[in-house]
Request: fold
Amino acid sequence: MSAPEDTSGTGDATTSIGWGERLRTVKNLATRLGPILSKEMIHTLDASISYLETGRWLKSQGIVVPRRVESRVNVYDQLINALRDQPILYLEFGVWQGRSIRYWSERLRNPDSRFHGFDSFEGLPESWNMLFKKGLFSTNGQPPRIDDPRVEFFKGWFEETLPHYRPPPHSQLVINIDADLYSSTKFVLNALKSWIPVGTYIYFDEFCDRNHELRAFDEFLAETKMRFEVAAASRSLMYIAFRRVG
Reply:
């Protein structure tokens, strides 16, 4: 009687070959579909992958998302309700027309709170993704007018203003990052890392972008070993606030 044929490992090899063939088919199909899709459609497809990656990344970090809320304002309100009576230092990176910094300053009335906005007011320093070109969000160099002496703007590129900035005394720090770009977000996080004690809130306005804000925060956590929990998040996780816990 002959010995049985040794087929150990052939299943994995067959699976590998089958997966490789399917991947080549997908690539071939993608290049044939590309010419009939608009730039906006491809941007939407790419963004969809970023939303998937955001969910995967949060799970990989062991970060649980609490009850989600409807909008950016609802995320703000959850933090504001927790911070209302404390002297806050609120730092905003990417001010544009000042809607967010105005919203926060109108609701946090402690006279010792400070609201500092950082922006060149000349728009994006480089193109962002496929649809947002360099210079978008420019206000022609003009900061918004807000009649609150606690509000101050630091005009210039982050790498010009942050190295010379010294935070005033405060009991609670809130960082609002609406810089959009990986390079800008990365610079801000690195510049602030020595000022971020346990209890600090960091809000991201475009978190579901795996190539930009998400990527920068992922690298920041890997480099600093800081631990965060989700303090508030919108349904899509685009608008999300983290609180340092360790």
